[in-house]
Amino acid sequence: RGEELHGAVFELHSLNGQDLSHVKLSSGEAPVAPIIHEIDRIVWETSNNPIEFIGLPLGEYEINEVEAPEGYKLLAESVKIRINNYGVCVVVDENGEERNLNNNTVVIVNEIKKTPVVINKVDEEENPVAGATFTLYYVPIDGSSGGESLQVISDKNGKIELELEDNHYLIHEDEAPEGYVNDVEEIGFRV
Fold it and tell me: Using 50, 70 and 90 to split pLDDT, how confident is the model at 144?
């Protein structure tokens, strides 16, 4: 399980008309003020701690992500849950089958957003150069050390096609194809 993400906005609404006006939200020991708290729906923003619903009545509910945290994809599908007659929270799949949860905890995982990036290797006359070997270095935005690297090679069209997370990067040519000279300059860019 990864870290709790701050800044996601979720909506929980009753699928069978349950009154949610008395439900309280808590994060750790602290109460959470919802963005919207209506009779049949609650909208809240996540913090760095799990959110607990206190007093959620028996019934079926749907959880939708309204806004994803910065740098993450919006959840494509809603999560259906049921508070059963035993007061246990279960996830309900598209066939109506129940799946038990660990400690009545719904875990929603966001995927990191990636952006398509194309790097073109060309010669002085703008002709594509195939077979150039580069190292792409990930440089964390927060300035921390320990960035990862990836070795890539230009294809027959001189292209390197990648999907990169939002961050800073450096690219350095390690080896030029036969008949060419290495470009010693590192190029920095941000996605």
Answer: low
pLDDT of 145 higher than 80: no
Task: List, in sequence order, every residue forming a beta bridge with 170; answer none if it has no partner.
Answer: 137, 188
Cβ atoms 34, 23 nearer than 8 A: no
Give the type of residue at 48.
Answer: N
- For 19, 22, 23, 34, 83, the CA distances from 55, given in Å and listed in that order, are 11, 7, 5, 15, 11
Tokens of 81: 């849950």
- Per DSSP, the residues of 73-96 read PPPSS-EEEEE-TTS-EEEE-TTS
pLDDT band of residue 143 (cuts 50, 70, 90) is: low
Per-residue pLDDT of 39-53, as tens digits, reads 999 999 998 888 899
**What's the rounded Cα separation, in Å, for the pair 88 and 73?**
30
Residue 155 in tokens: 């294809």
DSSP string, 131-182: S-EEEEEEE-TT--S---EEEEE--TTSEEEEEEESSEEEEEEEEPPTT---
Token pair for residue 73? 């994809």
Q: pTM (2 decimals)?
A: 0.71
